[in-house]
Amino acid sequence: xxxxxxxxxxxxxxxxxxxxxxxxxxxxxxxxxxxxxxxxxxxxxxxxxxxxxxxxxxxxxxxxxxxxxxxxxxxxxxxxxxxxxxxxxxxxxxxxxxxxxxxxxxxxxxxxxxxxxxxxxxxxxxxxxxxxxxxxxxxxxxxxxxxxxxxxxxxxxxxxxxxxxxxxxxxxxxxxxxxxxxxxxxxxxxxxxxxxxxxxxxxxxxxxxxxxxxxxxxxxxxxxxxxxxxxxxxxxxxxxxxxxxxxxxxxxxxxxxxxxxxxxxxxxxxxxxxxxxxxxxxxxxxxxxxxxxxxxxxxxxxxxxxxxxxxxxxxxxxxxxxxxxxxxxxxxxxxxxxxxxxx
Length: 343
Ligand code: SAH
Ligand code: SF4
Known about the structure:
The protein has eleven helices and twelve strands. It is an alpha/beta fold. It has two domains: 4-53, DNA polymerase, domain 1, CATH 1.10.150; 60-327, Aldolase class I (TIM Barrel, Alpha-Beta Barrel), CATH 3.20.20.70. The strands form two sheets. The protein has a ten-stranded mixed sheet, with helices on one face. Strands 5-6 form a two-stranded antiparallel sheet. Helix 1 (4-13) crosses helix 2 (19-30).
């Protein structure tokens, strides 16, 4: 759904009073109506205008799959130009509902361990295509008398290479007239695009920032994340420091545990040294299989040992619970070509 101001302009240009825009927004976001025909507040000529000119959804559901536990719900969407993206709804035990959105079709960055990068890059998503992923799940949850509480930009794509649309989508997600999701309940994950991290500290200081670190030094990092050549760790860490000084916000560092690549004791010590005295949190992510030859996840014991070393150095650390592996909906498994058989 396009945003209020654009909607108003469209109406006024077509001789319809702009207050109709507020009525439509209210019907869509507060009453959960996704057909103009149900919007009793609108006169029929206005309904007709909308039906002819403005589809509520910019994305169309193609397929859905639900994990065996029922906690994870992945949806494949088709965009107006036929391209496909995926988004995931996660239901946590404590009742929280989190939507993981895509920000691009594919990704230019080709991290070795990630399925999204493998398919290449097609294009950026518009702000509307981003917020409509959330609207889709919001509507699904309406029947359970529930709503989306958190949004994470951890689906397909690098959010900071589609910066303007991501920032605009965040302001819509936060808007009381639409989703009313608190900025602190929104997380953006980046592979470490330095200029945009700086910009983000000014534009969205309450939004949570997660950095995909995945290695304690440039040698390992560049071998699994090509973007690390452009933005070396020293510069990245300096930028992160500036970010926390400016925002007083704790950065969450993501670290995917790769067997024999980045998971040794000495890697853990090196990581602790790198993050020493930073206001941060480390999230160890079990590697989700993506068909990369020779790449394996660390064992549970190895991950526990790695965690212990960080704790020894007083670095706050957790191991991420990965939901939805059985339907390829976990981190790094979204590829926009889901082949499930539901829906
Ligand atoms: N492009 C952004 C956000 C999307 S990826 C980024 O890279 O941060 C979301 C998280 O999943 C990132 O931390 C990413 O590194 C991680 N990830 C990618 N592939 C993975 C895999 N196969 N197993 C586990 N985590 C993976
Ligand atoms: Fe792109 Fe993130 Fe995947 Fe790397 S991990 S290829 S940056 S989506």
